[in-house]
Amino acid sequence: MIGRLVNNVAQRVPSLLYQVCMMKKPQVVFVLGGPGAGKGTQCAKIVENYNYTHLSAGDLLRAERAREGSEFGVLIANFIKEGKIVPVEITINLLRMAMEETMNKDEQKFSFLIDGFPRNEDNLQGWNNVMDGKADVKFVLFFDCSNEVCINRCLERGKNSRRTDDNRESLEKRIQTYLQSTRPIIELYEKQGKVRCVDASHSVNEVFADVKCIFDKEG
Predict the structure, then answer these.
(1) Which helix (H) or strand (E) holds 29?
(2) What is the Cα 113 distance to its own chain's centre?
(3) CB 36 within 8 A of CB 151
(4) 3-class SS of residue 160
(5) Are the beta carbons of 3 and 87 closer than 8 angstroms?
(6) pLDDT digits over 152-177, tens only?
(7) Beta strand pairing status for 53-56 and 136-144?
(8) CA distance 51 to 215
(9) If DSSP states are collapsed to H, E and C, what string results for 100-141?
């Protein structure tokens, strides 16, 4: 079933990444942190101030889940509702398709914030297998925030959002998944000197002031 989804996604957009990469490779910043750490909010501010395109792995999966005619919508919905990580083949092909679309429309748009990915070792291995030599990972932007702050933020967001995973039961599962699967990836990149850590417990503007210092330095 997953293999068929990958094929369906790949067929929706011509594979232009190889052609584009002959000119410029995608420059990628992985954006990681617990649910409710403010990744989406800060990515929006980065896009406003720098020439980056924001790609949220979660948003892409939710869009595919809601896409009319998607025979795999229920499959993706169940993974998200249970706080589990969607199989890597699905996520990477959605990310690749989004980058291809962006770079095909504007070749100057080659810098990407990939939000919520890689979330586990399987994600990372899948990325390396598919994108090695085709995209450069500049660094990992890590929004560090306590579990309780993350949960409270998501519960507040859930009052107005229609996200099925913004409830305490799903959030506790997502936190555990994050601690068990994503934190080791952050630690791996730390050993490579590629992590830029931001204290995400402060206000939006205070957090962005720290983010801005990083992007002013890193470009």
Answers:
(1) strand 27-33
(2) 7
(3) yes
(4) coil
(5) no
(6) 888 887 777 767 667 788 888 888 88
(7) unpaired
(8) 11
(9) HHHHHHCCCCCEEEEECCCCCHHHHHHHHHHHCCCCEEEEEE
Whole-number pLDDT of residue 122: 92
127-146 burial code (b ≥16 CB/10 A, e <16): beebbeeebebbbbbbbebe
Measure the CA–CA gap between 46 and 64, rounded to whole angstroms: 25
Angle between helices 73-81 and 57-66 (to 10 degrees): 130
> 12 to each of 21, 60, 131, 134, 184, how far by Cα in Å?
20, 14, 19, 20, 34
Take residue 89 and report the two structure tokens written for it: 């083949």
Q: Are 29 and 113 in contact (CB under 8 A)?
A: yes
Contact 29, 116 (CB under 8 A): no
Question: For 3-52, how does the pLDDT look when each residue is reduced to its tens digit (9 = 90+)?
Answer: 555 555 555 544 545 444 445 889 999 999 998 899 999 999 999 999 99
Position 23 scores a pLDDT of 55
Tokens 């092909």, residue located: 93
For the question of whether the overall pTM of this predicted structure is more than 0.85, the answer is no
Distance CA(87)–CA(77), nearest Å, equals 12
**Residue listed under structure tokens 């579990």:** 147
